[in-house]
Specification:
single chain; alpha+beta; Arc Repressor Mutant, subunit A; two-stranded antiparallel ribbon; about 55% helix; globular
């Protein structure tokens, strides 16, 4: 029997199920509005850009904030740009520093779909969390952040006995 989880066994099992389901569902496209299709990762980027539209964060900072690998993030940006849901810019002094912003079409699509999303399982999730005090909710959020920070974020983070692991081709 695994004992290291102690009284948190059910929570760990629920987190594992959730993460695995998110991984399975991550590439499934859904219609957000007017036959515009995105997957959950693309939705997260669109939502972030909408919420932070006054920021001129470079692409790298946004991908790190959302925890999305740079290569995956570039594909997401290309898809959203092709659908005219976002706009790309660069500064006059640095063409490699790409700035992305949500477009008017992206804002309308987000607003249209946010009603659908708010009525999905998120509504039930938030309803259940209403039972927590603000302090408990803050502690739970911090605990999730600590759990996330302990995960490898890229292949170079994988180590054995303090030594970097080298992939075998």
């Amino acid at each position: 029997m695994i004992v290291w989880m102690g009284r948190y066994r059910q929570l760990v099992e629920a987190l594992v199920r959730h993460v695995n389901q998110v991984n399975r569902a991550g590439s499934i496209k859904f219609n957000i509005c007017d036959d515009l299709w995105v997957n959950s990762f693309e939705w997260q980027v669109l939502e972030y850009l909408y919420e932070h539209e006054s920021n001129d964060d470079p692409m790298l900072r946004v991908s790190e904030t959302l925890g999305i690998a740079q290569s995956t993030y570039s594909k997401i940006i290309n898809h959203l740009h092709k659908g005219k849901l976002i706009e790309k810019f660069h500064t006059p002094d640095n063409k490699k520093n790409v700035i992305i912003r949500i477009s008017e079409k992206g804002k309308k699509a987000y607003e249209c779909a946010s009603v659908q999303v708010s009525q999905s399982s998120w509504h039930l999730f938030f309803e259940r969390l209403n039972e927590l005090s603000d302090e408990s909710l803050s502690a739970f959020t911090e605990a999730l952040d600590l759990l996330t920070s302990g995960l490898p974020s890229k292949q170079e983070d994988m180590k054995a006995d303090g030594k970097k692991l080298i992939p075998i081709d």
